[in-house]
Structure prediction request, 265 residues.
Amino acid sequence: MLKDIILHLERDPSRDIVRDFAASIAEVFSAHLTAVIFNFEANIPAEALEDLFAASEAEARGAIERFKLAMKRGNLSAEPRLVSGTSKTFSEMARCFDLSVVMQSDDHKGVNNSILIETTLFDSGRPLIIVPNVQQEALKLEKVVCCWDGSRTAARAINDALPFLKRASTVELLIVEDEKTANEQVLRGTVIGQHLARHDIKVRVETIPAVDMDVANTILRHIAGGSTSLLVMGGYGHSRLREFVFGGATRGMLSAMTVPVFMSH
Prediction:
């Protein structure tokens, strides 16, 4: 069951769609929504940055006031929190929630959420949904596409997404043919399809060849212009100096996503 959601609240009012999207998830699942916004700490004398910190807190409090106003329009169980911390703080907080919701980075607006997404994905032990900059609507579950390559990470993502899959009108199991999916059983998606059927989830298997061995672009081309409401995929990465960094497919998806992406690691 999905009953407790944590949202990374955005300062910029033009990015409030992530707030509304998270609220729509909470409405669907009758879940509690906690919106978190940070006054980031810095190892710099406070007097040197007094004006900067004051402006940052004012922006944060403005976002909280917009959140409170938006929540009054519904009947949600919701609360805002203004806390000091870093991206790691958010990932640690997320361990005590069922799901995190974060917005995609936006280079044009100077918003970089990459480290926040990375630490939440690899360090929280919980799934998260990344909302794209182009998102304009609340959560819809008309068609959910699940990426499947037979890996542990893909299995974790699909299992964590079961509450969404059970409510979806259509569930597609998307298999991109490359060296990871050379196994015939993986290509057919038979076993994972049977598993989902036991959860009363009927899936349609779609197998497509990788375009120039670029999995992310192949997936993006497949869902472009379609009716996909949510994409479910494993968040891949590898360890470097005791930190995780995104794998190629995950990095490519996060930079060019056009629909909300549900990820687990």
Confidence is low (pLDDT under 50) at residues 239-246. The radius of gyration is 19 Å. The chain has ten helices and twelve strands.
